[in-house]
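We examine the record.
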Amino acid sequence: MVAFHEMMQEQHQVFDQNTGWFSVYSSGVTASRSVTDDDRPRHGVLGPDMEPLAMATHRRGPQVGCELDEKGFLVTAPLKFFHSSLLNHAPKRVWDWYSSPGALTRLTPQWLTTVVEPPTNGLQPGSRTHLVHGAPWVDAVVSMVPGLQHLTPVGTSWVAEHTTLEPGVSFTDEMVSGPLASWEHIHRFVPSGTEETLVCDEITYEFPGDLREVLRLREEFEEQLERVFRHRSRVVAGDLNFHTDLALSTPLTIVIAGASGLVGTQLVALLTAAGHRVIRLQRRRGESRRLDEDRFSWDPARHQLDSEVLEDADAVINLAGASIVGVMTEKHRNAIFASRVQTNSTLVAAMKRTTRAPASFITASASGFYGHDASPLSLVAEPITEDHPSGDDFLAAVCRQVEGIAREAEDLGIRTVAMRTGLVLSARGGLLATQLPLYFAGAGGPLGPGTMWMPWIGLDDLIQLYVWAVTHDSITGPLNAVAPAPVQQREFAEVLGEVITRPTRLPTPGWAPALVLGRQGNRELAMASARLSAEKALASGYRFRAETIDEAIRQIFGR
């Protein structure tokens, strides 16, 4: 079925002689379709003689082409899936984005796939990528268990190899090993004038097994493909639009601590896909040294960091810190505190030794700065701005210490920003990922009274806010890194259930999270209430990708 969405307003038509594509699409909206050799011709692909080739709506069932294999089983001929999306950006800019080191990480759908090994040599023929398709939130839950943080992701392995490359025009990858009998993905980039690009994806694939199995799998598989490519189109357009709005004249050099975590991985990809240089700090015991052009080792527990790494940096971002999720034992509290205080103090000490200090220092803090009881459990709770006093619990004390150390950089003339980050929504980690198994089992719902205020933010908005803070001198001091529409927990549960089509009527007793987090963790994490204001970010000119909880969760799951 040609999936032209109801939101389409202005339609365009493009025919390209080189690719044989004749597409109908709308700005920012995509169209997808599946093809078999005996599909009824319609307005679609034109051959070299300008006669219509087979290009039709999804036609499943007996129309699928088939033949007998050597064992006499009915098997299908290769199936095709097409997708196209129009980007309001020049072809070279789009090509540069797709050929950048961060593109695959940004394109990978967070509800479905994990990148185990990135491309070994970019888009060059012979370059290989290792992916795992499964449920990334399972990995997030498993990683909470001590000793299991570095296990291989759970799911189906998929190794792809780039086979052809025509710079600026197209590239192709094929499945080398994985669950399908075959897979070939051709990516084409068709100019539409000088400032627009039509990105065309053509997939040819085969299922293993006989015809009956194929007919059962095909519809579900292609529905998943439509979700994946809808997600990819949204991400590419969002990233390119964001960097266009920044309008930076020269690439930046940014040092990032904590680059391998949930936020850091996506932040590095966002920056490198736009041509910026990222220098990663990697924890290793002993003396700090250069590992390669873009990596330095450091040992914050011993305050070891070679200040050379900061000499040419435009900005430093600190995302490092032990996860706050877990039972609040003395050992866990010490790890939370030390990992954040030591990293900030080591970075600031290194800045003091530089001959050319970076222009800005952006450090992670948290909404926990305001305390677990910052907002009453009421619909009329006032939004909390950055000048609100700090709370008096453990996490608030950690945030105060972290921000206090960061402010020492201001004495060096370095603009400092503390990102008081809300609950980061992602299927790969954080609050949402740890709750998904419960919700998918149909057992999710309001937690206790469900009236706690949740200061949430989508992962894409959070990484953009970090870049926004780096590039906007008007932003100083604390910044509430939250979406502009906070919700109470029961609304979060209701929306999540609606998006993943699961019931959420079953309330969870307020004491239940204590079984996992302990009493202190339950009080300061699960049952915390803070209605934070995003006015400072909005006043700076930042535009959110996901302003509402419904938008955020639908984007996460490609809905």
